[in-house]
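In pairs, describe these two lines:
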Amino acid sequence: MNLAGSGVTALKVDKNRFYVLRIGKDNWVYASEDEVMKDLVEKIRLNDDLESEDVRVIKVTILKRNWRIQEVPWSRAILDLIRLSKAGNVE
């Protein structure tokens, strides 16, 4: 969300959780795991030179006083992509 002319881009965090897609030195923030997986597919299509060590999907959970940061395992990412594909959400 771009806050009308303020130059600030913000993402409202629902369910105290968001995801970060890191490819090389670039990072993108997403509200849901489905969104990050869909965009990952597109980014792979645009850059077929990507190696697995270049890509990280990180889940950030906001707890009362702490934040929990976990990398999403590749096996889970692959299952999510297959499910999205079966549902017709990824071509």
